[in-house]
């Protein structure tokens, strides 16, 4: 991406409906000067703390404070290395704090940190908070969940029953803090195109809002409104956990800047390369020559050439098989340039219909329970949404119905009584 591309951000965090503390933390850092951007790029972090009482809150707060501090002052030119080191530094800081006080022992946090720089989008990641990229109708999960569910699936083990899955799916297998060292996954660089939208979130959101909904909402609404609506959806669906989201949308290229070209995915068909193909071709020619010699009764020469070329062919096959397997294994480990999961975002029409239904149910609850809603504003938004839908302008209808949901959720008993962040 280029410095000239603006980045529009929306962030939102909420305690949810059932927790006493918000143990999620987040931070965003947009570079103010080109020199600063060339050195390290924009930075976004979501961390979801754990450990009970105020301990999780402390762990996630240390992560989102330590990472920018370390990352932004580093002179290392490679963003992947800098980001990994910053996350490792946060791990050491949380671990050190945990060992100082018995109450803080084993405190930990997930951490997903994204940079948008001239090298592209790079994510450093530990735990089950997620980073997504939304491009047109496609939503790609760029991070691997370090959860029992995902680790078992990677090793081809499945839960034996739905009860097992429900009990264990949220157990995380890696976090910052509990151990003196941690393995950090660094993903990317992923190419960044104009209008690409990046979304980081804690599991309080991703457990309750499906990828295809997240993709559609992030595509249809400005980042600030999309962030609000996503958190509202998590709360409307029960809000069992804290939920946090950061949305960053990359702007258009200025007219005088040439778009950069970067290959989207590695091309598997080219994975063996021309050298191997030429090798196979040469050996095949020798094999054909040997068989021809046998056909014209030149037995000794024919047997020698055929045997040698057969052995060479076998050796080439074994070597190419090994190389392909190593390549696939290393790609599986690093997922270089590939998302871990992909979904198709909902079209505007089904998204509108889903939101209209949610809005309708919410409106009924608000009227029955006497929420202090500004009904005039709400009804205007609903009328505008219905009229846009009648003329098949569903993207516009989505914007209006999300306004109506926001006007209701502003007065939801939980929101109305919570201190504003
Ligand atoms: Ca959580």
UniProtKB/TrEMBL annotation:
Short name of any one Pfam family annotated for the protein: PP2C
GO molecular function, one term: protein serine/threonine phosphatase activity
PPM-type phosphatase domain location: 8-250
Presence of the UniProt keyword Membrane in the record: yes
Domain of life: Bacteria
Keywords: Hydrolase, Membrane, Transmembrane, Transmembrane helix
UniProt entry tagged with the keyword Transmembrane helix: yes
Membrane-spanning parts: 274-296, 303-321
Protein's recorded name: PPM-type phosphatase domain-containing protein
Gene source species: Thalassoglobus neptunius
Lineage of the organism: Bacteria, Pseudomonadati, Planctomycetota, Planctomycetia, Planctomycetales
């Amino acid at each position: 991406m280029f410095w000239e591309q603006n980045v529009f951000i929306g962030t939102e965090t909420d305690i949810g409906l059932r927790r006493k503390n918000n143990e999620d933390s987040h931070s965003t850092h947009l570079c103010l000067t080109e020199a600063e951007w060339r050195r390290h790029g924009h930075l976004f972090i979501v961390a979801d703390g754990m450990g009970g009482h105020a301990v999780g809150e402390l762990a996630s707060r240390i992560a989102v404070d330590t990472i920018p501090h370390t990352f932004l002052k580093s002179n290392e030119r490679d963003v992947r290395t800098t980001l990994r080191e910053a996350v490792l530094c946060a791990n050491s800081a949380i671990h050190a704090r945990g060992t100082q006080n018995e109450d803080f022992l084993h405190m930990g946090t997930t951490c997903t940190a994204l940079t948008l720089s001239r090298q592209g989008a790079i994510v450093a990641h530990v735990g089950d908070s997620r980073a997504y990229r939304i491009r047109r109708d496609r939503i790609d999960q760029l991070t691997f969940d370090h959860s029992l569910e995902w680790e078992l699936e990677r090793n081809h083990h499945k839960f034996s029953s739905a009860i097992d899955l429900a009990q264990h799916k949220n157990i995380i297998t890696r976090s910052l803090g509990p151990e003196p060292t941690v393995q950090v996954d660094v993903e990317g660089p992923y190419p960044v195109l104009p209008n690409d939208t990046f979304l980081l979130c804690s599991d309080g959101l991703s457990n309750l809002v499906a990828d295809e909904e997240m993709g559609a909402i992030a595509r249809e609404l400005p980042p600030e409104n999309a962030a609000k609506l996503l958190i509202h959806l998590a709360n409307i669906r029960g809000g069992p956990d804290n939920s946090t989201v950061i949305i960053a949308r990359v702007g258009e290229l200025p007219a005088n800047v040439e778009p950069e070209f970067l290959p989207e995915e590695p091309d598997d068909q080219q994975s063996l390369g021309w050298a191997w193909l030429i090798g196979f071709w040469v050996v095949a020619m020798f094999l054909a020559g040997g068989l021809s010699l046998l056909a014209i009764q030149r037995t000794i020469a024919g047997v020698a050439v055929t045997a040698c070329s057969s052995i060479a062919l076998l050796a080439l096959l074994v070597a190419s098989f090994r190389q392909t397997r190593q390549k696939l294994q290393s790609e599986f480990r690093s997922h270089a340039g590939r998302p871990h999961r992909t979904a198709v975002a909902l079209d505007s029409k089904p998204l509108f219909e889903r939101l209209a239904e949610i809005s309708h149910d919410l409106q009924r609850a608000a009227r029955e329970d006497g929420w202090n809603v500004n009904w005039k504003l709400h009804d205007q938004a609903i009328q505008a949404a219905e009229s846009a839908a009648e003329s098949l302008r569903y993207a516009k209808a989505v914007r209006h119905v999300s306004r109506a949901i926001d006007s209701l959720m502003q007065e939801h008993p939980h929101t109305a009584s919570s201190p504003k962040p």
